[in-house]
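Materials and Methods. Structural model of DYW domain-containing protein. The 960-residue sequence of DYW domain-containing protein from Ceratopteris richardii was retrieved and submitted for structure prediction as follows.
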Amino acid sequence: MSKGMRVNSNVWALVIQHVIAKKGLDSARHVWKLVQETNFQPNAFVGSHVIRMFNLLGSVDEANEVFSQLTRPNIYTWNAIISANAKHGQGDLAIKLYHQMVEVHGEPDDFVFVSVLKGCVGAGALDEAKVVHHHVTRTEYEPEAMVTSALLDTYAKCGTLEDVKREFELSSKQDPIAWSAAIAAYAQRGRPQEAFKLYQQMIQANVKPNNITFMGVLKACAKVGALQQGKTIHGHIIKCKLDKDVLIESNLIDMYAQCNSLVDAIEVYEKSAKKEVVVWNSMISAYAHFGRLHDAVEVYENMVKKSMEVNGPSYIALQKACISQYALDQGREFHKTSDYWDYFDKPEVGAAIIEMYAKCGGSLDEAHAVFKKLPKGDSLPWCALIAAHTHQGDGIGALKLFKQMQQDGICPDANIFGAALNAASLMTDLSEGKLIHEQVKDKGLESEPIVSRALIDMYTKFKSFGEAKQIFDTVQNNEAVEALMAGFARYGCSKEALNFYEELKVADIELSNSVYASLLKACQGGSSLESGIAIHDHIKGRGLVTDPFVCSALINMYSEFGELEQACMVFDSVKPNLFTGNAMLHALVKHDQHEAAFHLFHEMQQEGLDVNEATLLPLLKACTKTGCLNHGKHLHALIIERDLEANQVLARALIGMYSKLEGIEEARNHFKKMPVQDPATWKFWLDIVAHKKGFSSALECLQDVKEKEKPHVAIFDPLLAACSEEALVDEGYALLKMMKDKYDVTPTASQYAQFVALLEHMGRFNEAAKLIEGLSLPNNVDSWASFLVSYRQHASLGNPHAFNDDDILSDVYINERSRAEATKLHVLHRALEAWKNPGVAVIEEQTEVILAHRAELTAKIEKMKMYFKDGRRLIKRSPNSDKAKEEALCGHCEKLAIAFGLLNTPPGTTLRVSKNLRVCADCHNATKIISKIEKRDIIIRDAYRIHHFKAGECSCNDFY
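The predicted structure was written out as tokens:
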């Protein structure tokens, strides 16, 4: 191309499109150089394309340089440069350019409004956003829906809630813009109750709500699942004649879906007159929320038939629908389609595709392949990739990406921090998480809902409830409430959950459905039926007894407490729906009411209710338990009919059913036909094969892993377990070597620990000790404690000075008749004040947990002494004499609890005892004899395992 030769603008546009598709920044620079040489002064049309090219390739500085050389930019050029700066975190410059454009060019168009509002979000410029809003209101034409949506998003994200509150208090109370901004901000920032209150005050002040007002308050309803409030707002919308606004319709569909009312969502969709693309997209998302992939695809196909413009959000919604049903193949098809229509390079679409591959059983390699094709300057793809690694259990890889992103100059936003904190939750300690927390504080993002939720979730997973509560006290948003209550529920902290609940009531904080569900679950963990009933009464007072989600939680609670009749009463009190139906199915199957479960399922089908994973899973379990193969095959056909074959949870249930009812070969056929085989399913399958056919057969199945596909480390667990069960030491060594050499998989600490246990069981203590020392396994104290237990079982004293678990070490000395050494150990304990924690045991007595007291039990203990004298090899542990030993062992806390149970429960009742320390050998053997003489099942949960004593035997086979 000769210098000075003029080239048609359309030719340049085609060349630039090609460069963008190839992702070549060097090529882009060469093209810009040619444009300058051949066109002398590039026109606005070509300049706009060049700016867009540099924007998409991540070089905003070069985009600004191009703009500076244009003498007569048009509206498209202004929008291109404002959009580029807003996208790449230069919000202040985007706002400055916007004001220059208004001064030079005049009235902006809708695309410019959207671009500058994104810049306002990036800069946290609430005042500037309001200026833009005023510009929007004075335009001569009605702004497009995308402008309204951008305004809503800006008000929700700009500045802090304190900023919003201050600005609102200073504004005119007759200004609907100020009301709408505050309502939207409170709704998006996890304060839906404040949004509701503001809306009520707005109505009382006779200020007419607009579409932004209604969208904000609808989002608040969706946040807490407030269906009745949502319906009331819907009535107000109709009264204000805004029900035909397409964005309002879209938000109504979203709200009804989030409030678990698909029927209402469909009604809004079907009544929509215009049915613009945003309404179609919302309906796809609604079906995705309910796991109805088939219906979501049908809406998409109807869009195509009606020549609707399928856009980026359409493909995002479709990928969400695929995720809901683990439909990897369908997700791949939509990936290809979005790529074909040139939506793939949009960061938000690419991020959704990455999420799909991570959650539908695809490989991280596929997710990385998508990531490499996306613009690197946007944080969304980074966030999606970090979350993908976290979802597949690779916290280390996720945190490496987080650090790499910052090294590449990308500043983490709230979403990125949320993803990184979730990854930190997978670590062995809080060190990484606390470093990220410090960054969050420095950025002032602790109060962002997604961040506060992730922080509280992380701290509660490490049982650091004090720090989690401090974060809640600081931010007090709805997400923080939900996360903290979920944390209490996760670990059965019923007392803490109930105290927190009382605190929320005093503060008059409205609770979401998920908070009530977590609270009821926490009651189960603490065996507190009375508290659950009290919460049920409170729910009635709040008018939530008809809410499907809350009623499902109530059914689950009553079922866990064995109150099936109460669960049925809750179920019967509400209109038939999928959520309570599924909960009732689980309850019936849990209590072996299989016939009733099948009958209920038949009724649900007659009611026209859909089925999903939660419906089918308990029914498959019922088929497996009862041997109802024909019922199981009918359910399998239904799974195929509803496009649920890719659902890995259901697939595992089917394989388990066929393996038990038809045999391993039939189960193998079904396994091979599965469209997707994720690591959990492989592990499940290998576990079945190992259990039924042994290690060799399971090892053969490992060859079925697809060639060139790196197997997940977890699928080796069943193979190592089979080695342990069959006492295959050499095969275990070979397997560990194969993992590293053939599959490039590093065995986990728990896998090494399992193999160490095998070595100990086989009496190969030197090898076990070398392995523990050489690997620096985490929880080394536990590893050595386990080692010493085995050492004692094999009655081999060896060199006990090398070991640290003094309690077990003392036992070893006693068993070897080295009482002098045992005495020295006790003297040393006293000198160093290094006593172990005092033993505490509790026993269940009907609905109470009882801590037994020695004084009440003297008579029973005296009787128990006779058992011990009659038993073989029972009295083994005491530093002084047989008499002292006899007295000491009878005072051990678990025996006190057992004595209490024998005195206070009817003959034949199972005794359940919990102890905070490891059960000692004397107590273990004594309990075996008690179980035989008293004809009782006795279950003791100690710090290391559960022991089930029955007829003189223990479930641990004396390996404790």
